[in-house]
Amino acid sequence: MTPSDILRVAVIGTGKMGADHVRRIQGVVSGARVSAVVDTDAERAKAVAARVDGCTAYTDPLSAMTADDVDAVLIASPGPAHEAALLAALERDLPVLCEKPLTPDAASALRVLEAERRLGHRRVQVGFMRRYDPEYVRLKALLDTGQLGRPLLLHNRHRNAASPPFFTSEMLISDSVAHEADVTRWLLDEEITAVTVLRPRRSANAPDALQDPQFVVFETDGGAVADVEIFVNCGFGYQVQAEAVCERGTARIGDGHAMVTNMAGRWGGTIAQDFTDRFADAYDRELQAWADATRRGEVTGPSVWDGYAAAAVCEAGVRALTDGGRMEVELVERPGLYA
Questions:
Q1: What is the CA radius of gyration of the chain?
Q2: Long-range Cβ pairs for the range 268-277 (8 Å, 24+)
Q3: What is the mean pLDDT of the chain?
Q4: Can you say how many angstroms the Cα of residue 160 is from the centroid of all Cα atoms in its chain?
Q5: How far apart are CA 258 and CA 114, in angstroms?
Q6: How far is residue 227's CA from residue 216's CA, in Å, rounded to a whole number?
Q7: Which of these, 312, 303, 329, 313, lies nearest to 113 by C-alpha position?
Q8: What is the Cα–Cα distance from 323 to 326, expressed in whole angstroms?
Q9: Of 8, 162, 273, 313, which has the maximum CB count within 10 A?
Q10: Helix, strand, or coil here: 173?
Q11: Do 165 and 207 touch, CB atoms closer than 8 A?
Q12: What are residue 261's DSSP bridge partners?
């Protein structure tokens, strides 16, 4: 592979996720390298850039996007900053991998969708990495064969050892259940039409005023029902599990029993403590697939429509949490670009 074949990427945001993606592009992904990093914290950007040969640090995303050595953009900044970066990248017709959420709300996601639609071709992939996790990929492939019959129910569990100090009750929906909103749509190939959120008794381990756990119910336009147990202060680790209940059988993933040990009078395994550990392979596969497709001039992963739909579902979920009751999901007509 010649230097001209290498995809030169600007990574916007050098926090935990962004810095991990810089490491991944440099050390795991073939056919790509990090040529620029961007962060409003200049010293943090410089520190990350210093670990990569030929990498330039910026504090302004536009400056990086107009640099001669940038071919594509990876957005890993906080969600509220995504819209401006996405619109700027689309204006320059730059390929983008944008970490979820696409944007924090449906209205801003729709503005990004309209900008890409006016461009006339897809440029943005949204970072719903579970679509690249080997277990989810196998479950999707099995459901698509029809061997189990139609999916009737989808049970999801999403647990974190502890929530960040800034987490709010609404963020359990918008930041965490957003993943289940996407995988439910993807696994079932159906849109979510309504959301209900139930409030179990609060865990004593939850910070004051945080409604944790929550139980979320999705209804789809095909008549299936999906539920999500979201529990972000379970105390014991990070778990993501899913079980599809179909007409002729069930399929479950996420048990994490790849290795079971027997020692000292006990048997058992380990539980991941962090999403970057549990989904490390999925992130590797996601970025490799994005780099390969971008070098071919294609966009193959989750689309802006997927990001918009997830944002609309989460908005309905937050309304259901705060106001109570069943909330319908409102979506615009799906443009042909995303058919």
A1: 20
A2: 271/236, 271/237, 271/238, 271/239, 272/237, 272/238, 272/239, 273/161, 273/237, 273/238, 274/238, 275/160, 275/238, 276/16, 276/17, 276/20, 277/238
A3: 95
A4: 16
A5: 44
A6: 5
A7: 303
A8: 9
A9: 313
A10: helix
A11: yes
A12: 268
pLDDT tens-digit series, residues 104-150: 999 999 999 999 999 999 999 999 999 999 999 999 999 999 999 99
Residue with tokens 């029993």: 257
DSSP calls for 89-158:
HHHTT--EEEESPSSSSHHHHHHHHHHHHHHTS--EEEE-GGGGSHHHHHHHHHHHHTTT-SEEEEEEEE
Going by C-beta distance under 8 Å and a sequence separation of 6 or more, which residues neighbour residue 324?
none
Q: Which of 301, 330, 8 is nearest to 192 (CA)?
A: 330
3-class SS of residue 292: helix
Token digits of residue 179: 């993943």
Please give the Cα distance from 163 to 274 (Å, whole number): 11
Full DSSP string of 178-212: HHHHHHHHHHHT--EEEEEEE-PPPPTTSPTT---
